[in-house]
Amino acid sequence: MRNRPNSDLARSITRRSAIAGFGAAALALTSKGARAGDWPTRPVSVIVPYSPGGNTDMMARLAAQYLADKLGQSFVIENRPGGGGSVGAIAVSRAAADGYTLLFGASTQIINIPMLQKVAYDPAKDFTPISIFGAGPYLLGIKASLPVNTLQEFVTYVKANPGKLNYATAGIGGNIHLNTALFVARAGLDMVAVPYKSGAPAMSGLASGEVEMYFGNASELMQHTDSKQIRILAISTLQRIAQLPDVPTVAETFPGFDTSSWNGFFAPTGTPSAVLGLIEKHAIAAAKEPAIVDRLNKLAILPFGSTQDEFKAVIERSRVANRVAMKAAALPIIE
What we know:
alpha/beta, D-Maltodextrin-Binding Protein, domain 2, 2 domains, 6-stranded mixed sheet, 5-stranded mixed sheet, 12 helices, globular
């Protein structure tokens, strides 16, 4: 997150850059003499650093199936949760740089965790970003029994009850925690953070009234737009989205506020450039495939499909922005 977290990311979603050519895919891979046409000759492992069933896992499976169909080899999803995603990241960082082990990850293990604790990998040195597949906004949901109907009314109500209301987070130091902490700081609220292990129990906490607010993934909250227990007040991106046209943006109340998450492919550093280019090419195409776009849109996930250079730029902006959010969350940063 950031002072204007991922604003460039959100704008790049609506103003997609022209996709670069992939002439590199025709080049010789390494001094070993391998060529892009030789890859893949056996199944490719795609490490997902989270449990099955979540947003990251769902996107990884959609992208992996598309790559398998186009390249004629299996792309096998391996879920390796733990440590906020660091367990899966460590496995990929130690894998051979031959294109047969990929990470389908998020900023949590690439940016957040290494800034908050020592990990057994260096995200800048051990991974090569390939392509962002999808980006997800956040929805701000509150307990429906609260006597408010708009974001401004909610802010006024919280300020009239300092320290008395709680908000849920899906873990400590993850994107949802940072997104929420940034909003709370920007709005000048005094609320108590209640950490849950993941999004599902955080949603349950909001629905049961254990907490008064959850600023979580849109895919988790959008199904509750007509709920009697949860009231959706705002979305985190600069612009409203087509799936939820009646939900205002946080930026309509707090100009410039803009957050979203991203998920995409990484490879161990040293993976042949032609293999990277081939994965990049098909990942971009997958994010434009109508059936995949429709599936993602139904979950309020925005199809992305970035080039390697675009992905690197997003990571750098996210790193700067997340540092701001971590300070807002009073988290100790490893310098």
